[in-house]
Amino acid sequence: MAKEKQIAIKEAEITNNCPECFNQQLKLTFYQKHTFNPFFHRTTDVVTHEIKCKKCYSIIYPVNWTDDIERVFDYYNKLVKPDQPAVRFTTLFFFLLILFLGLVAAGFYLKMEGII
What is the pLDDT of residue 103? Predict the structure, then answer.
């Protein structure tokens, strides 16, 4: 079963007013989706974001954004450099691949010798 994780790639403290409590401590976080399973780790190109107030702990959705929050978000969105989408195979994958190739080679050898 594959596990999905949102790994933070950029965090920024912004001083815009919270639409809920009017506090000036907001945290903007960008996440990139990573998928893990026993055979490989995949980095996807899916990037999400979240703005959270540090006082009332409410998530500020784009519907509630002010013009100032939008400008700051656009600025930080340009600065985000996500990891390249990639697939990294695990040691288990390579072990099973070598075992399978060895079994196929042994079977082919035995077939050529006429033992099977």
Answer: 96
